[in-house]
Design brief:
The chain has 195 residues and is mainly α. It is 78% helix and 0% strand. It is built from nine helices and no strands. The protein starts with a helix and ends with a helix.
């Protein structure tokens, strides 16, 4: 495989990983809000969220493998698992390693969700909010074509999408359809206990 092909594959897989991870984060936010439409039930959002997360991992693996085997950077496999161990763009690649490991923790706990419980899974799942911006910063700092129009546009669109989704989540409040009946039931149960 030629060095040029490895370079293009690494860059392309990194850009696709960013777009897919952004979609996963946005869908995760919408799933938490229980957003649905008449023609799009909530379970489809959840299924799409999971499938895009798996696809993100495939492109991320391609990004990492091609970066490691590219002879120009001489990264080595240690760089893929030990943050800040590379002599090439140490800080920026270290951020990429951290983002990868946070995503790996999310995947492992998602697979073990039945064993570790919902509360532990949910706590680890919040790492997505740390992983995504670290991955974005990694891409900005590491990429040799970061300031090219196409990659800059992709990065800006991804940032705007996640910020808009977070803004929507913060302003929308709870969309739990059982919140009001649950609160009424709990209040009635507490009144009955105090009698």
């Amino acid at each position: 495989m030629s060095d040029t092909l490895l370079w293009y594959t690494t860059r392309g897989a990194g850009a696709v990983s960013l777009v897919l991870l952004t979609a996963v984060v946005v869908l995760g936010i919408l799933s938490a809000l229980r957003v649905q439409a008449a023609g799009w039930p909530r379970f489809l959002t959840t299924g799409l969220h999971r499938n895009l997360a798996l696809m993100t991992l495939v492109f991320l693996a391609l990004h990492i493998v091609t970066a490691v085997v590219d002879p120009f950077t001489h990264l080595g496999w240690l760089t893929a698992v030990v943050p800040f161990s590379s002599s090439y763009r140490t800080f920026w690649l270290g951020l990429g390693t951290i983002a990868f490991e946070l995503l790996l923790a999310i995947v492992v706990t998602s697979l073990a969700r039945g064993y570790i419980g919902h509360a532990a899974w949910r706590l680890v799942h919040w790492l997505t909010y740390a992983s995504w911006p670290i991955a974005v910063i990694h891409g900005i700092g590491t990429g040799t074509d970061t300031w090219s129009a196409w990659l800059l546009a992709i990065t800006v669109i991804c940032v705007v999408a996640v910020v808009a989704a977070i803004g929507f989540r913060v302003t929308a409040g709870s969309r739990d359809p059982l919140k009001e009946p649950r609160t009424t039931f709990q209040a009635a149960a507490q009144r009955r206990e105090t009698r």
